[in-house]
Design a protein that fits this description.
about 25% strand; about 25% helix; alpha+beta; 3 helices; 3-stranded mixed beta sheet
Length: about 130
């Protein structure tokens, strides 16, 4: 299941939008709303952050991971320029430090021929190599 990345950003470009994008770009791991809020200096409204994150996902700038803890995490999509880019990969959530990261191996699921998947969300939970 390949993902089409639009990288639009032709929408209203506010200082808050730019700040959220910069935090996501600089992070090596996926960030939850709370983690993003902590990184932003000016105490941005929670609803505004959610709106920006959802818009980024629609535009293909980020991909969303829903973890076993029920939280949504967002990772900047740095490979979207590639034609064969896919968001079909597992993510790993460390139960000790809370880090959520992309595992780069693409997943192939052998579904019946008539099935047409639209979303893949795979999360492995455990202890990361830094916490072992």
């Amino acid at each position: 299941m390949q993902h089409s990345c639009n990288k639009k950003m032709s929408r209203r470009n506010t200082p808050t939008t730019n700040a959220v994008l910069q935090v996501l770009k600089q992070s090596k791991v996926a960030l939850s709303h709370d983690m993003l809020s902590e990184e932003l200096e000016n105490g941005v409204d929670r609803t505004t952050i959610y709106r920006i994150l959802n818009r980024f996902e629609e535009d293909g700038l980020v991909h969303k991971v829903i973890c076993d803890d029920g939280k949504q995490y967002f990772a900047y999509c740095s490979d979207c320029e590639k034609e064969d880019h896919s968001h079909d990969h597992f993510h790993f959530r460390c139960t000790n430090c809370g880090k959520v990261e992309c595992l780069e191996n693409e997943i192939k699921v052998d579904l019946p021929e008539s099935y047409r998947p639209t979303v893949f969300n795979g999360v492995i939970t455990g202890i990361c190599d830094e916490c072992v």
